[in-house]
Amino acid sequence: MTTRRQRVGGLPGVLVPFAVLAVLFLVLPVVGLVVRAPWRTIGTELTQPESLEALRLSLVCATLATLLCLVLGVPLAWVLARGDVPGRSLLRALVTVPLVLPPVVGGIALFTALGRRGIVGRWLDEWFGISLPFTTAAVVVAEAFVALPFLVIAVEGSLRAADQRLEEAAATLGAGRWYVLRRVTLPLVAPGLAAGTVLCWARALGEFGATITFAGTFPGTTRTMPVEVYLALQRDPSAAIALSLVLLVVSLVVLAGLRERWLGTSR
Amino acid sequence: MRTRTPVVAFLVSLHALTALTALTACGSGDDGAEQPRGTGSDQAGGLGSITVLAASSLTEAFGELGDRLEAAHPGTTVRFSFAASSELATQIRSGAPADVYASASPSTMDQVVQAGDADGGPTVFVRNRLEIAVPAGNPAGVEGLADFADEGLTIALCAPEVPCGAAAETAFAAAAVTPLPDTLEPDVKATLAKVSLGEVDAALVYRTDVIAAGDDVEGIEFPESSAAVNDYPIVRVAESPNAEGAQAFVDLVLSDEGRSVLEAAGFEPP
């Protein structure tokens, strides 16, 4: 960390005003949100049944999506970091596409794959009578689709950075594969895994485009907070600001948790 | 210590990527809503650049009128933003640059007028009625509004915040049917898209949308639609940067030529 500090200290002064502008640019909108919040009525705004329902749905769906991402993403990260598969860089590029894909496009893509007339969804509907769009499951799928690459890249990065000699040493001392995984590898990558999980969750929580496209919006089943904010803005802008504040607070709490993790382990 | 640095570096680049994703998302949204027409430059002799904020249901008819205005006045560029009337009203009240606002309901227009953002009084230029939209071939065998209460069908409606949703509520009240929608979409074109994709069995949209959707969508008329006919008002925006152009567009919409284009799209005279 000392090398990093020296680099920061050696910055040419001409960059400072731009850095200050950048900070203002990023912080001012958040300040605006706090200043314009309807503080007197915020209590009643936020305890509206629709708001609470949307918040509950958002938290549940983001958490389920994160669990799904962990179950699928950690093994994938493992394959990308350690696996001996041909075309690994192509595979990595493919699975990170949702990271740069506009979420609305992701929603349409999900329709073409898992919709009632999608290439896979058609058979789900015909064989099992399962129709995914417009259900809470569709929200989880849409959120997981956009959030999974965040987790995969984070975990893959720390798997690559982990000192494999420690695992080899454990193996030579007679530890089995599972034992090495549990007692050596996972503790080594724990910070990356934690960071990836939190980012994945935050991305899922804020998901809007793919959700409103693929899952639609209906109170209680598919109307998550970001969608509720979007619709509230048309009905009552001050309610939209109040709801936005809730998402801001949740994001800040998550970020604070992440910093804690960071600072706690790197200093 | 060494193992931490790549994580930090990764997170930094990841944050950059997140921002990029968000930006692309916004960009694509704007591209969909705003359709710049013509050359995009303000040439002398024309009416300059005219920005029209209009209800989604006017997409096809106004697009045609914009083309005609540009053809009649070379050097004119008509830019459209089509969205839910309620969303556009919010944008205008927040100071979005616009010359003309055309909404799908008097109540959304009232929001703009009350806020002092309208130049003069609005004029109702057309009316529109609702129709049941089903995917081509009507796979679920929908016959009327009563089918919207069938739990087994997948139904899309407009959210009650937007004019087509408000009209749908009126129609259902007139028919004494309690609908069981699976999704409440943010504007009428989004509702229609779910039908075009075949992802819902039925939706309530405007007659004009069924016509605009072509072969993918079939329309079913229903008697209660006369209880919920929407008036479409148009007005010049008070802060209009191009009042002359705004007036020219409004004049065209209210002219016989404008009426014939709108009626060809399925709108009814006021």
What is the fold's blueprint, element by element?
The complex is a heterodimer of chains A (267) and B (270).
Chain A: H1 2-9, H2 15-36, H3 42-46, H4 49-82, H5 88-95, H6 97-100, H7 103-114, H8 121-128, H9 136-161, H10 164-172, H11 177-206, H12 209-214, H13 225-235, H14 237-266
Helix pairs in contact in A: 2-14, 4-9, 4-11, 9-11, 10-11, 11-14, 13-14
Chain B: H1 4-33, E1 34-36, E2 48-55, H2 59-72, E3 76-83, H3 85-93, E4 100-102, H4 106-114, E5 118-128, E6 130-135, E7 155-158, H5 163-175, E8 183-185, H6 188-196, E9 202-206, H7 207-213, E10 217-220, E11 230-237, H8 243-254, H9 256-264
Parallel strand pairs in B: 2-3, 2-4, 7-8, 7-9
Antiparallel strand pairs in B: 1-3, 4-11, 5-11, 6-9, 6-10
Helix pairs in contact in B: 2-8, 2-9, 3-4, 8-9
Question: What do you see in this structure?
Answer:
The complex is a heterodimer of chains A (about 270) and B (about 270). With about 270 residues, chain A is mostly helical. Chain A has one domain: Orthogonal Bundle (MetI-like fold). Chain A has helices at about 1-10, 15-35, 40-45, 50-80, 90-95, 95-100, 105-115, 120-130, 135-160, 165-170, 175-205, 210-215, 225-235, 235-265. In chain A, helix 4 runs parallel beside helix 9 (about 135-160). The longest helix of chain A has about 35 residues, at about 50-80. Chain A is globular, with a radius of gyration of 22 Å. Chain B is of the alpha/beta class and about 270 residues long. Chain B has 2 domains: about 35-125 and about 230-265, Periplasmic binding protein-like II (D-Maltodextrin-Binding Protein, domain 2), CATH 3.40.190.10; about 130-230, D-Maltodextrin-Binding Protein, domain 2 (3-Layer(aba) Sandwich). Chain B is built from 9 helices and 11 strands. Chain B has helices spanning about 5-35, 60-70, 85-95, 105-115, 165-175, 190-195, 205-215, 245-255, 255-265, and strands at about 35, 50-55, 75-85, 100, 120-130, 130-135, 155-160, 185, 200-205, 215-220, 230-235. Chain B has a 6-stranded mixed sheet, sandwiched between helices. In chain B, helix 3 packs parallel to helix 4 (about 105-115). The radius of gyration of chain B is 21 Å and the shape is globular. The model of chain B is unreliable at about 1-45 (pLDDT under 50). Chains A and B meet through helix 7, helix 9, helix 11, helix 13 and helix 14 of A and helix 1, helix 3 and strand 8 of B.
